[in-house]
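Good morning C.,

I know you're traveling, so I'll keep this short. The sequence:
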Amino acid sequence: MAGSIRWTAPHLRPSVTETPSDQDTPDQDTPPAAAELGPEQARLLEREVETAIMRQDGVADCAVVFQGVGDDAGERLCVRCGITGRYPGIVFDGDGVCNLCAMYAGNRERIHAYFGEPGDMVRHIKERSRARGSDYDCLLLFSGGKDSTYVLHQLVDLGLRVMTFTFDNGFISKTALNNVEEITAELGIEHLTMTRADQNKIFLQSLEQHKSVCNGCFRSLLDLSTELAHERGIPTIVTGLSRGQIIDERLSWFYQQGVFDPAEIEPKLAIGRRIYHQTGSAIASAAVDSVEVVDYFRYSDVTKTGIREFLQRRSSFWSQPQDTGFCSSNCMINDVGVYVHNQERGYHNYEAPTRWEVRVGHLEVAEADEELRAPVNTARVKRMLAKIGYADPADRDRLGSRLVAYYVPRGPIDGDELRASVAGALPDILVPEQWVAVEEIPRAAGVVQREALAAPRPTRFGTDIGEEPEPPKPVLAGDLTVPLTPVQRDYLERHSADVERRGRALLLELPGRPDAARVRKVVLQLLLQHDALRTRLLDRDGERRQRDGGVGAALPVLGLDLSRLDEAAEPGLLRAAVDRMRARLSLTDGPVLQIALADRGSRPAWLLLVVHELVADTPSWRLILDDLCTAWAQTEAGTPVELPTAASFLGAAAAQPEGAPAAVPAGWTASAGDCILPGCSADAAGTPTRTRAVAPDPAGDGAPPAGKVLSAIATVLTEWIGGEFITIDVQDHTAGGDRDLGVRQVGPLTAVTKAIVSFDGPCGIAPRTSPAARIRYDHFGDLSRLLPAGAPFRLATRDEADYTVAPTTRPYVLSVNAAVEDGRLRLDWWCGPKLHGLLREADIPRRVAELLSRAGTEVT
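The tokens, ready to paste straight into the viewer:
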């Protein structure tokens, strides 16, 4: 159905569009950088910083480069494309041609082989929509600027069924928004406009990380549009990125590696996009996997002049927006990125994609110069900076933001520790923001060859989804695999139907403000410390084995922004976050853990941890949390993270004899016989329902014995059923499992025991050949003891992230969990609706609680 809808995404308020006032007049000159230094002044600063770095014991050599100032290279321009010598990594040959133009000239045919014809795109999009049975062929990202307006007309002319989507970042041109409304109405296109209430915060993060606002804007655009396309069943999103942007964003990394074959590039781009969405956003992986992004100008060689001429001929409704920044046809805030990037990086953040437009023939050099060197309205920029909350670079004179420190380590060295030590010896404004470890500093006759230094990755304005992740770095050499342990084999046999999602969740309350960088550093240390958290499963000739998958390029750390939400909305979002994090776990590809940092504004921050049961039992959690607390305290003190030595789980698994049986608790003997709940064989398929019984802790010390609770459960159930004993699968989470308690080892080492329990309590371990138990009992003890004494965190008790609750009760008809909280024993009975009714009718949970302690019983 045609029509235009405006909607504000969750955490939401209507956006307020920034408009220039009558007093705003463009400045006549580009604003000076905070540190406009000549070459001699820059060299003096570089030498001062180099001296401080060379005083560090762990540094063998170093060189410091002030970006944007060279001997004369910073003022040089490529004679072909016009790119400035201030752009990182640019080198000119004797004829004044830059290295990127030389690379393009030598690989022109291979580069253009990536691009196709409109017919190729149409066939691909229609094949995907037919396979999905979609109402629409594609969702177009429509800004109302010239490029996306041209694309919309072309898609319609090509016979595609198009829906359009606009992200209003709060600074969109009113003319551009009017273009959106008029043109979609003219063409009968269904349209949706969305905004985010927290977009200014995202702009702030983007400026802090990238010195550009466009990264954050494009992330919101892609996240929201991907979720929309997934919800509407639209399999393809079409973008209006220019060919220069496509090359800079998607392909430049591959060109640097000498890779030009589209068949090799495309799969790696898909991996990069998945990692991009996994980092810093809560978008579901199912949405990312179901929606493909297609760049229209990959299939169209139209020039900028051709686009303008087409719009003049074809669209009477499109108007050239004037209320925009100088480098945008639809937005004002990109001027903020231009201003900050020029001030803090020494060059224009659109330099690379615009010069690629020249190389491929879509712009003339003079046009590119005009786009890049048009003046910036600094009065308006400063107001927008204040609105976002980013300090004006011109007011703080941050020289360090343009300094890059290249250093040669003598051996293993902590980069954060090195930076902290150097910062203690220099004024704050001289501490380099970028640090690059290299094998050697290239010199000729004692002079640093700056052009030979590997340039730090340039900050670009888009998605970075074209960058291939670094390959994993396994600790175990080569492709070494080890067999599964008996506990793991037994686990996979029991939970084969739903094994991927079986992660336990724990919620911690943090002190102070949320610090994402600190969380990432601590999580990295945990991954390096415990090889069980890096485990990956694979199938070798029909046999399941495991290997060290390495840390990988993207840490499994997510961000949840709850700062603008009412506290009443938190339970639903927390439950959804746990579900999504469980869904992202993968035993074959990783990760096997997920961690989310939740910013709750004025309320204490949360740290949500989800770890797969196949790699960590409860004693393992205690070790993980102990190391988490230790690393947290050390980072707070500014000292290097040094964790106690941990034993290798995979090494121990490799040393185990093949086919070894799972361990059972000492003192238990084998017995025969079985008894199950009658008439409930199909009940496990229903949605599990909880019945809770609470009583004072019968032991009084926070650790009631598993046998005592088991005896009470067996007594009441066998009285109810009428049998003499009952078979129950038991996992005692307070026990150390099959591990040397003097060794710090994370891994699934606690076996499930098939116990035959009678009126008199546990009477033995059932033979492994006996029928499968239909009842499960998990004994957790005092949950507060998961955290070490003096922990900086507090356990946050929430039903939505309950450590004792597994995602499903399968394969059991009845699952009972016991844990002590605040000195009271809590029993949760989980079962399907049929058995739930029978248990409630017979008052079984209350009777068990009363048997454990006759006083103070309460049922919830």
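Safe travels,
E.
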